[in-house]
Amino acid sequence: MMQDPIRIVLAKIGFDGHDRGLKVVARLLRDAGFEVIYLGLRQTTDAVVAVAEQEDADAIGLSIHNGGHLTLAPRMVAAVAERELEVPVIVGGIVPDRDIQALLDSGVAAVLGPGTSAADVVAVVRTTVAPE
Amino acid sequence: MMASMTSDDRAAWEAEYAEARLRDVDFETMSGIPVDPIHGPGPYPGQYPYTRGIHASMYRSRLWTMRMFAGFGTAHDTNLRFKDILANGGTGLSTAFDMPTLMGRDSDHEWSVGEVGKAGVAIDTVDDMRDLFADIDLGEVSTSMTINGPAAIVMAMYVAVAEANGVPRSKLAGTIQNDVLKEYQAQKEYIFAPRPSMRLVTDMMRFTAAEMPRWNPVSISGYHIREAGSTAAQELAFTLANGFAYVEAAVASGLPIDDFAPRLSFFFNSHLDFFEEIGKYRAARRIWAQWMKERYGATNERSLLMRFHTQTAGVSLTAQQPEINIARVAIQALAGVLGGTQSLHTDSYDEAHALPSEKAARIALRTQQIIAHETGVTNVADPLGGSAYVEWMTDEMEKRAEEVFEHLLELGDGSMLEGVYEGIENGYFVGEIADSAYRFERSVNSGRRIIVGVNDFTDGDDADGSNLLYIDAGVEQEQLGRLGAVRQNRDSDLVARCLDSLAADAAEPDVNLMPGFIDAVEAHATEGEIVSTLEGVFGTYTEKAIV
After folding, report:
1. Inter-chain contact A16–B103, Cβ cutoff 8 Å?
2. What pLDDT, on the 0 to 100 scale, is given for residue B2?
3. B142 has pLDDT over 70
4. pLDDT of residue B497
5. Residue B154 CB contacts under 8 Å (≥ 6 apart), including other chains
6. Of all helices (H) and strands (E), which one includes residue B221?
7. What is the mean pLDDT of chain B?
8. How far does CA B311 lie from the centroid of its chain?
């Protein structure tokens, strides 16, 4: 039985230009059978939510490398809630361990910090979208 | 004393070496064996095409500059770190700016929330710049500023602060990165489209050529290209292609080549494949000298010399078992030194998690000091020259770079500048870099490439993260307060007049914008106001999202 592929929107919001990680994740997920909608750099939270809604996405992947995660990620979560979507927000990038709980408390569904393996990226996105 | 003369090269080298001023140390091994300053075949260090180094005596005369990159929080916070670096034997300053500053936006821009002072120091106005360099004699230190899109504005602030303190611009020494081409290819901190951005670069080159003889107006940077995922050969090729593009742009703006080429400098990555890195540096010097002489007709010898800064590869630092990064950094730093670098930044072991803590930054500096003072590698210039493997690697790097140059010249109908513009527009650079990054990642994931602590040897990862540098949210509030106070206390009519005049200058392609920038920052115009003014004339730039 063929399942519909998981659809994920990948973006960076604000100024942060470090897109190596997000591009690698995009290819990784694509090779693992996901449908990736890659928005790239300098997105606004509203633009990301609009695309997620329009594309009927199962998840939003946000990459943050500049230390702004405690501000930017909750904003993304709030923007999703404002549209009354039920799309989990997954955050990847340079997130110190000590900030993970705060992100989860703010409504982020999962955090992929430095050193996360490719297998874990795929597994975390999968279980976040369809909890076992 | 010296080996007998075997050729004209050797005689010429000996004459040049005899003129060099040497450091007051014993050039012998730890066991007391005297060591000749060069070994192996000519052309020797200091001789065209400079594969073996740009000076006859290299580190016997002068060690590389130990330049540690620092910046976080407010100007005052970073000023304290600067003074600590100088007190600990650092010999140059290097400034990291926060994202809003790098993108030409003020701390109170809506996108700045959460980013103020986080990845570097927040600079909005000349007042911040004054506090950043408080109690530091700008006539004595050399300063590097890592900023690109709005580089000319930040440079104007630096000049304004120095002159307010009685140091004339002609005495200022340092480097501003100002390499906007690699922003479109790798780092992505662009504001305007490539062509108006290039005008800002050439304006700065013309300004420094005329008024700031000790300043390097562009640091042509492969570092970010490599960090974004390129191979060593791509880093070499793209960086030098960008260098040639700047040369062509500056010549087209009316500057004679020998008026600016001696002040061009470069910035490379040092990754972990030791001999590949060394081959890359040697090839870089050779290619640059040959192209400057033969293709661009430079006649001043100094125009042919590639001077470069090296930074160890941030991307190679592992989050797991972070202390083992100290070993990685030491090996990378050694490659930079054996490759003949003029200055070096060593990364701190904790940077996969956060900006460096003070202790980690000190260990990184100490690593350089160990190489400089304990290992003896500074006794001999290009000690690996003549090694069959290193010479082959150097040739191989050169060959691969030349293939890229050919492709770009084809894209540009014989013009490297146009070829680089085209490669930016058609996604050539970002595509090549992303391909290489993914190839690397797959080799790690498949286990073909071992990264210690990541996919093998994983026991012992007990990092608790408790010593990480942490920028608290108070920094943002403090900076917003500082900015608000400046806006309130300045002469806003004067600011408006300066900005109007800048807009008029920007509309005239032949007017140099630097004097207008200096006037505007002296009137306390903010960086964001100046950038917005330019956007009114130049527009903004958005890249196509390509995976």
Report:
1. no
2. 44
3. yes
4. 98
5. B97, B101, B123, B129, B145, B147, B176, B527
6. strand B219-221
7. 94
8. 8
Residues of A with CB under 8 A from a CB of B: 14-20, 23-24, 26-28, 30, 36, 38-42, 66-72, 94, 96-98, 113-115, 117-119
Beta strands (DSSP E) in B85-202 are: 92-96, 142-146, 173-176
Interface contact B465-A118, CB threshold 8 A: no
Q: What DSSP character marks residue B346?
A: P
Which DSSP category does B183 fall into? I
In the chain, the amino acid numbered B230 is: S
Per the structure, the count of domains in chain A is 1
Instruction: Please state, in angstroms and rounded to a whole number, the distance separating the CA atoms of residues B118 and A68.
Output: 7
Average confidence (pLDDT) over B170-199: 96
Domain contains A2:
no
Query: What's the mean pLDDT in B111-121?
Result: 87
Residue A1 within a domain = no
Instruction: Tell me which fold the domain B58-445 belongs to.
Output: TIM Barrel (3.20.20)
Q: What is the DSSP string of B236-275?
A: HHHHHHHHHHHHHHHHHTT--HHHHGGG-EEEEEE-S-HH
| SS3 assignment, position B139 | coil
Domain, as residue range, for A55: 7-116+118-123+125-129
Asked if residues A29 and A125 have their Cβ atoms less than 8 Å apart, the reply is: yes
Residues of chain A with pLDDT under 50: 1
Cα distances (angstroms) measured from residue B434 to each of A125, B124, B185: 22, 33, 10
pLDDT bin (cut points 50, 70, 90) of residue B466 is low
* Encoded tokens for B276: 């590949």
Rounded to the nearest 5 degrees, what angle is found at the Cα of B243, between the Cα atoms of B237 and B249?
135
Those residues whose C-beta lies under 8 Å from the C-beta of residue A129, and which sit 6 or more positions away, are A6, A8, A58, A59, A88
Q: How far apart are CA A23 and CA B543, in angstroms?
A: 14
The Cα B312–Cα B318 span in angstroms is 13
| Closest CA–CA distance from residue A29 to any residue of chain B (Å) | 12
Angle subtended at Cα B208 by Cα B205 and Cα B209, rounded to the nearest 5 degrees: 80
